[in-house]
Write a structure and sequence with these properties.
about 450 residues; alpha+beta; six-stranded mixed β-sheet; Serine Threonine Protein Phosphatase 5, Tetratricopeptide repeat; 3 domains
C-alpha cells in the first residue's frame, strides 16, 4: 500500500520543486528596445573620438603670415593647433615643418592637417604635404584610437588609391559615405569625399555584383557631398553606359533622375539649367526613355480597354529616338482613372483637356513637326509644322486646360490623317519628308 501523505507535505514538496525549476530556468531575454539601446551605445563607444573643428582666431593667422617659418618660436602650441585646421595654411609644407616637429605634434594637430589635405585633395595628393603627414602618422607614438586606426590604414586615408578603397567599401556594404566617413573620423564634405563618390561610378559599372549598381543609385548618387560638375559628369557617364544595364538598373537610374532636384525631367524648360554641362547625347537618351514611357502609358492605360486596333503604340515606339517632347493630355474621366491606377498614379507629366471633353490627346514633338493623336476612335491624327502653330508650341507644358479647337486646327495642319489600313505607310512617308525616320 502506498504511503499516505498529508496536504501540508504535498504542498511543501511542490514548493521545493518550484524553487528548483526557478533556479534552473534560463535568464529572461531583454526586450528588443533594450537591446537596441545597448547596440547603439556599443556602436557609439566603438567609434574613435574625433576632434571638433574650431574657427581659428584671426590674430593667429596674422601672426603666421607675419613670422612664418622665420621665427616659429613666436607661435604658441595653441596657435599651431588652431592653424592646423586652417586649410590654406595647413597644406603648406612650410607650416607642416613647424606643426609636425616632435615637441609640437599632437593628435588634434594631426586631425586638422589630415582634414586640410583632404579638403585640397586634388592639388595635394601627390605633393610633399601628404608625404609629410604619412611619415608623421607612422612615427606618432602617443596613444590615440583614431590616429592608430589611420596609422594602420594609410592606404585608405593618405594614398592616391584611398578614395577607390572607400568607394568599394560603400558599394560592398551598401551604406553612405557619411556613415563611412564618421567611422573613420573624416570630414565627408571635401575634395577627398567627392573623389570617393566619383570613383564609385566606374566600380559599379564594371562590377559583377548587380547590387553594386543599385547601391550606387541608392547611397552614392543622393549624397549632398558631390561637387556639381563631378555629379553631372558621373550622371552623364551612367546614362551613356545605360545600354549595358539591365532593365531594372536602367529603371532605377531613370527614377532617380526624375526625383532628384538637381536633375528632373530634361524636357521641361524650367529644368534646363539642371542639365547644363551634361552632353546632348546623354540628355537625348533620357528623353528617349521618357518618351517611350509616355507612349506606352498612354496607349496602355488611356485607350479604352487598351484597344489599339490600328497599331498606333508599336508604330510610334519606333520613333521614340526622334521625339524631342511628349505629353499626354487627359480628359477628366481618364485623369481619374490615371490616378486610380498604381502604374500611372505617380506619373505627373500630363496636361488636361477642357472640362466635358470626351477624349484624351497625346502630343509628340519631333522638332520640325508636332503630331497630335487622340484616344477615342473617330478622331484623325493631326500633323503640324512648328511655325504654323506657335500657340500649341508655346503652351506645350502649360498647366491651363487644352481645347479641341487648339488641337484640331484644320486650316494650319499639313496633314489630317484617319487611321485607315494605309495610315502607317502614309505617316511614315510624311515624316520622312522632314528627315524623321523610325529606328531599325
Amino acid at each position: 500500500m502506498s504511503e499516505s501523505r498529508s496536504c501540508a507535505e504535498i504542498l511543501a514538496q511542490l514548493d521545493k520543486l518550484a524553487s528548483s525549476l526557478q533556479q534552473e530556468a534560463p535568464p529572461a531575454i531583454p526586450p528588443d528596445r533594450t537591446i537596441g539601446r545597448l547596440r547603439a551605445i556599443v556602436e557609439r563607444l566603438s567609434k574613435p573620438k574625433t576632434a571638433t573643428p574650431a574657427k581659428c582666431p584671426p590674430n593667429y593667422i596674422d601672426l603666421w603670415n607675419s613670422v612664418g617659418v622665420s621665427h616659429p618660436s613666436e607661435l604658441s602650441n595653441r596657435a599651431v593647433r588652431y592653424l592646423s585646421w586652417e586649410t590654406d595654411i595647413a597644406v603648406r609644407p612650410a607650416f607642416q615643418s613647424v606643426a609636425l616637429a616632435p615637441e609640437r605634434i599632437s593628435s588634434r594637430s594631426l586631425q586638422g592637417l589630415v582634414r586640410s589635405v583632404h579638403r585640397r585633395w586634388g592639388s595635394a595628393v601627390d605633393t610633399l604635404s601628404v608625404g609629410n603627414l604619412r611619415l608623421a602618422l607612422t612615427t606618432y607614438s602617443r596613444k590615440n584610437a583614431l590616429i592608430d586606426k589611420w596609422k594602420q590604414n594609410l592606404v585608405y586615408v593618405l594614398n592616391a588609391e584611398g578614395p577607390t578603397r572607400f568607394a568599394q567599401e560603400i558599394l560592398t556594404r551598401g551604406t553612405t559615405w557619411d556613415d563611412v566617413a564618421a567611422e573613420w573620423g573624416l570630414e565627408p564634405d571635401s575634395e577627398f569625399g567627392n573623389e570617393v563618390l566619383t570613383r564609385s561610378i566606374p566600380l559599379s559599372l564594371t562590377s559583377r555584383r548587380s547590387e553594386d549598381f543599385q547601391n550606387t543609385v541608392r547611397f552614392v548618387l543622393p549624397s549632398r557631398h558631390w561637387r556639381p560638375d563631378s555629379f553631372k559628369s558621373c550622371i552623364q557617364q551612367l546614362i551613356l553606359a545605360s545600354s549595358r544595364l539591365s532593365p531594372q538598373q536602367a529603371s532605377s537610374l531613370r527614377d532617380f533622375i526624375l526625383s532628384d532636384q538637381r536633375l528632373l525631367d530634361p524636357r521641361l524648360p524650367r529644368n534646363g539649367p539642371n542639365w547644363a554641362g551634361i552632353s546632348e547625347s546623354a540628355t537625348n537618351i533620357v528623353i528617349q526613355w521618357l518618351s517611350a514611357e509616355d507612349i506606352q502609358l498612354f496607349f496602355d492605360h488611356v485607350l479604352t480597354n487598351r484597344n489599339d486596333p490600328h497599331g498606333r503604340k508599336p508604330f510610334w515606339l519606333k520613333y521614340k529616338g526622334k521625339v524631342k517632347r511628349s505629353r499626354p493630355l487627359l480628359s477628366a474621366l481618364d485623369e481619374s482613372r490615371w490616378f486610380a491606377n498604381s502604374a500611372t498614379q505617380k506619373k505627373r507629366n500630363f496636361g488636361r483637356m477642357e472640362y466635358f471633353c470626351n477624349t484624351s490627346a497625346f502630343l509628340l514633338d519631333f522638332g520640325r513637326v508636332i503630331v497630335v493623336e487622340f484616344s477615342q476612335v473617330g478622331n484623325a491624327v493631326y500633323v503640324y509644322e512648328h511655325r504654323d502653330v506657335p500657340d500649341l508650341d508655346e503652351s506645350f507644358w502649360s498647366q491651363a486646360r487644352f481645347s479641341l479647337n487648339m488641337l484640331k486646327q484644320k486650316e494650319y495642319c499639313i496633314e489630317r490623317m484617319t487611321h485607315s489600313s494605309l495610315w502607317q505607310s502614309k505617316m511614315r512617308t510624311l515624316l520622312a519628308q522632314f528627315g524623321i525616320r523610325p529606328e531599325n
